[in-house]
Amino acid sequence: MELIDVGANLAHDSFDDDRDAVLSRAAAAGVTRLVLTGSSIQSNQDALLLARSRPGQLWSTAGMHPHHASEYTDEVHDAIRKMLAEDEVVAVGECGLDYFRDFSPRDAQREAFERQLSLATESGLPVFLHQRDAHEEFLEILKPVLPNISKAVAHCFTGDEAQLREYLDLDLYIGITGWICDERRGSHLQDIVGLIPDERLLLETDAPYLLPRSLSPRPKSRRNEPAHLREVLRVVAESRGQSEEQVAALTTRAAESFFGLSD
To answer: How many angstroms separate the CA atoms of 168 and 239, rounded?
Structure first.
């Protein structure tokens, strides 16, 4: 059984001491391919270098998370554009709006989001989207340009049924993380994850964040890692009334299609 983790922040410094061991544990758990998330100037570069070090196993994205939108300059825009020409870079982003934290001014977030969507249009690459507490404005910006974008995924979807249906109506892919394993705030996802068509369901850890709370025994460390994608798979399969083997196969095909990955 093979899995693809479509969103892991493997360039994060929490992995600096044991990154190879983390990848070995992932492979042992069946997580054989990973897309590493770029979300800042430094993480874009680090993720690309990591992807180059393991061809056929790792790929990366390049973009600017809304938390860093105030750093989005013409120079950053041009640097991301150049990275998008690299074979290892398979998507634009992580980009979008985050009005929950507001670490960057909202005007800056909107401008950075719009500029990165233009790069997705220009490059023909899919876009890796982030949205938190900004659903309406997010759609206002996204909808007009979607016809010119090859594919788009709502990364780490945590919304309600109405939001999910809106995204599905726009043909977005949906990324499900360990949020679905959290009985405090994510159990609603178990009721609606079955609405996602087989061909548009993606699995991701968002490691080192969002450690699945349903893991048993609970790891001593709160750091999430790609091997724990197996727990996300388990909960998603149970919630959808499908076998783990079915969900592993269909999400692998969906990830290959979305990112244009080779085996």
So the answer is: 18
